[in-house]
Each structure stands twice: as structure tokens, then as C-alpha cells.
Design a protein that fits this description.
The protein is mainly β. The chain contains no helices and 11 strands. The strands form 2 sheets. Strands 2, 4, 5, 6, 9, 10 and 11 form a 7-stranded mixed sheet that branches. The protein has a 4-stranded antiparallel sheet with strand order 1-3-8-7, with no helix packed on it.
Length: 115
């Protein structure tokens, strides 16, 4: 069983930066893809960015050029570097891990960007 623990959220002024972390623990076999999703109240959870086992990254258009997804395999940790943050980036961000045929979610952490 795999658990994902997120950290790094908080309050930041527009134009600032945050770095989200997602640490995986438990029995991990083959990681197919890891990603970050966001969900605002009343909205569907949507992809922010993900990265495959082969290192291929994918970004939503609304974060492209501002956010960078990365991973540290030795630490089983994934990161989302969030730069030039905008108030509309305010959301709860969730870590997602696809390991083999199974999918795991982090607990979510709040990112709030003030104007």
C-alpha cells in the first residue's frame, strides 16, 4: 500500500513562488506517472502537471511557463515549483501517483495567492 503526503502550500503574494512536495511511502513497484491536480470549490479536479516514468512532462496551458514538475526518485518525492503565481492559482492541490494499475491521492494542500 502506498501513501502520499503533501506539503509546501501556504499563502503567497501575487508574483511570488511556492514549492509543493509529495512524498510517497509504502511498497512501490513501478511508477507510471505522477502528477499534480487542483480543485476549486464547485469545480472539477483538473490536471496541473504530470511526469511519466520516462521523464516526459505535461502541463496545463494555464501554468505552462510558470510551473515546473520534477521528481527525486531516491527520495520517492515529487515537486511542483510554482513561480509567478496569480490569484487565480488559488486552489487545493492534490498529488497523484499511478503505480502499476493502482492510483493513489495525497490529502491535498491549500495554495492561496493574494493580490
Amino acid at each position: 500500500q502506498v501513501q502520499l503526503v503533501e506539503s509546501g502550500g501556504g499563502l503567497v503574494q501575487a508574483g511570488g513562488s511556492l514549492r509543493l512536495s509529495c512524498a510517497a511511502s509504502g511498497t512501490i513497484f513501478s511508477i507510471n506517472v505522477m502528477g499534480w491536480y487542483r480543485q476549486a470549490p464547485g469545480m472539477r479536479r483538473e490536471l496541473v502537471a504530470d511526469i511519466t516514468w520516462g521523464g516526459v512532462t505535461n502541463y496545463a496551458n494555464f501554468v505552462k511557463g510558470r510551473f515546473t514538475i520534477s521528481r527525486d526518485n531516491a527520495k520517492n518525492t515529487m515537486y511542483l515549483q510554482m513561480n509567478r503565481l496569480k490569484p487565480e492559482d488559488t486552489d487545493v492541490y492534490y498529488c497523484r501517483l499511478a503505480c502499476g494499475s493502482q492510483v493513489y491521492w495525497g490529502q491535498g494542500n491549500q495554495v492561496t495567492v493574494s493580490s
